[in-house]
Amino acid sequence: MLVGKSAAVFAVVLAAGSARGDGSATTLFDSRPYVRDGALQDNSLYESFAVSARGSDATGDLFQDVRIVARGWGRVTFGDSFDNHGAAGDVDSFFLEGRILKRHLLVRLGRQLATGGAVRATQFDGLSLDGVVSGGFGAQAWVGVPTQQRFSQSSGDFLTGGRLFWRHAFDSELGASYVYQLRRGYVQRSDVAADGSWTPVRTVTVSGLAQWSLEAERFAEGRLSALWQVEKRLQLVADFQHTSPELFIDRSSIFWVFSEENRDEVGGEAVFRPVPQISLEADWHFLHVVAGDGNRGGARATYRAQTGTNYGAELRYLDQPDNGYTLGRVFGVRKLPRNITVTIDLDAYWLKKDINATNHAYVGTLTGAWAFSPRWEAMLAGSLGATPYFERRTEVIARVAYRFGIPAGLPGGLR
User: Fold this and answer.
1) Which residue has the higher pLDDT, 42 or 303?
2) pTM of this prediction exceeds 0.85
């Protein structure tokens, strides 16, 4: 019903004679291995699309900036499928939006993604409102049904919530929010949160979030970060994050039983550009989980030419109670004449603990892309390697993308 109504509104917007349309269509073939009672190869053909139409003029006295957006994908698998479905598809977003009250209030109806504060990033079917009253004070609200994958339905699902905020400038904002979500009639989330970002001086930005679960009576998430642009060439970041992973997972899922109760990280990152073409990055974080302590970190060096060509090398490591690894990586992107791009990526992993009596993995990927017209692009990628799960791992991806637009002045309502 929602799709049918949105399609009807889409037609009305276009027929109004004051709309622009644009979008893209991508066809992708992916052949990759997967493990299920032995090593198998999944061969799937994907088709994805993104379409939007926007009114170029005010659509009457009530609504302005009317826009409709649709994004989705479909898949057909030849032979055995990794998820036992020969065909699948979904609609990622399908909504109509417009501004009212002299553009102070944005109204959006349909399948959409709610973000900010306690709602985090939640896809749902329903209604959202986002408006500014005066003096930078405003409010957001959501009500609807959380989206289930591939058009599946579950009775007893519900989502609502809201957020009050004060926006001092584009880089300084404070907010307080609440979200309430039911899953199959049971309370999945009942959280309150405070969030904000603040730029006391031009070179320093501080942001954070504290989210409390009223149902579990403990913190679901906490984040605090500070960015300091010491000078044009040097940037420093310090951050802390606390999460309770099981509060992010559906309690009816088997993964909830095995999820960690708490996870804490504290550390920082530094980015140094001695010259515009060279970037040096390093990061390190201390980890604390229920099973013990660990740490993760890495360093990367990248050279970027003005032509778009770049080369780099990276080292990373992860050390935690259940396992860990060391990664060595080299990569390169080369721009060639006639809008051709070639990339190469070589990765080598050494595991802290053996998996299937193997403690290493090597994977190499070669990709070629060709933008043979302003609207068309083709890509072919091949990957070959050995991992603890596959003595020989091969993957091939072929993709063709087409971008289209319907400019003003064409017949049929799009002017």
Assistant:
1) 303
2) no
